[in-house]
Amino acid sequence: MTVRRWSGHLWRHRGTFLLVTLVTTLLLILWASQLLQHPRGRHIAPAVERIPYSKHVPTIIAPPTAHRGGGGQMPKLRPPRNPSEHPARRKRRHLPPVAFLKMSKTGGSTVQNILFRLGERESVTFAFPYYTYQFSYPRRFRAEFVDDLPAGSTQYDILCSHMRLDMGQLRQVMPLNTVYLSLLRDPVHTFESVFSYYMSTVPAFTLAQRAAASHSKSALHVFLEAPESFWDPAEPWNGLARNPMSFDLGLNNWGWNSSWAEDLARLDQKFQLIMVAEHFDESLVLLKDLLQLDLEELAYVRLNTRSAKDVVNLSEEMRARIRSWNSLDVLLYDFFLRAFWEKAERYGMNRLRREVAGLRAVVEGFRRRCLSREGVLPVELGDLIRPWQSDSATILGYELRGNLTDPEQETCLRLVLPELQYHSYLYFQQYGRDMRSVPEE
């Protein structure tokens, strides 16, 4: 057939030809969009060896076997027997992927528990650390710190384990439509809690504790009198010793520089919601709206709380010294507090107050139905519901009622389940094996 005859043939059937071309183009666009939507639809296979915690950095937590009930076995927490029997299971639209930046001592364990329960109920794929419970903290987050996708999963749906943020690396792991969340707390209360909880872990705090042994003052008081004398910024774990929230957000935590305002603005653009611990219920209502949840899914008890004897009673002078030493955290908190109330105004303050009242009624109902005692000392709790204990602070827990039905037991146990036990359980459910411990040197 000559070129002229081919041209005539194509011209006569040009409508069909254009239609086929259009359909082919549309199919290619849909295929490319699907690839972009699920960029991690494969196992993570880094070109380098998995990197555990830095050799010279102490870990914040003990190996997993130290936190399992029943002599090193997995906690005796059974999965829901079938979807219809789970007390909170019901149909609703698909949950968007969620990445929650869980920071040090801001109340993140309580939010993590909500996300754990939500993810378990919806059978999502969690992005868990390759080793133990944290993403190689205090190193900046890297994609290879995440364990492989389990068989049959195409993407990670929830990431909520402790990390130090690197947003570029995090976006390599999570889908494009991920909702990014975090939780801030008043810098004075955050620093007092960080100091108490990590006194034996953060080198600057340990030095202050030793110095306080010959004084009649608390270690925190001694530290605040001359913090520069204890703080060595070259020590990796000393990141928490100054502006700990800025450190966890991956920001410069040493001192003000010209890029700080731009850094805050970029974070504000990347996070759909940064919650505020001092307005926790209001934060959960905004989270409910963002993720299209029900109030019952946001029921909570405050986890990882310290005994009153371990909370330092701060004078006004000590508060002023904390704010001065953590001036970047003060700027950070004030910036996002304003952003939080702007979101609340857009949501509607009257509507917000009504929803908060409804949430508090739900929370109170769960507490009455589930709990027999609150603020229980760890020695009085069984392995399954005993929180991990810091060397320098007593962490309290909850005791459940003894007359619960099986469905109530399932719901109430998850409500009070400490972070490490729940983390271990969900990891086992997802992978069918125990978590890996950090390799010994």
TrEMBL record:
Per UniProt, which keywords does this protein have?
A: Glycoprotein, Golgi apparatus, Membrane, Signal-anchor, Transferase, Transmembrane, Transmembrane helix
Transmembrane residues, as ranges?
Answer: none
Instruction: Give the membrane topology, semicolon-separated if more than one.
Output: Single-pass type II membrane protein
For this protein, the record's Gene3D superfamilies field holds: P-loop containing nucleotide triphosphate hydrolases
* Annotated region (Disordered), positions in chain: 62-91
GO BP terms: namely: glycolipid biosynthetic process
Record SUPFAM superfamilies: P-loop containing nucleoside triphosphate hydrolases
**A GO CC term assigned to this protein in UniProt:** Golgi membrane
Q: Where in the cell is it found?
A: Golgi apparatus membrane
The record's GO molecular-function terms, alphabetically, read:
galactosylceramide sulfotransferase activity
Q: Which family does it belong to?
A: Belongs to the galactose-3-O-sulfotransferase family.
State what protein this is by name: Galactose-3-O-sulfotransferase 4-like
Q: Source organism lineage?
A: Eukaryota, Metazoa, Chordata, Craniata, Vertebrata
Q: Which gene encodes it?
A: LOC108925994
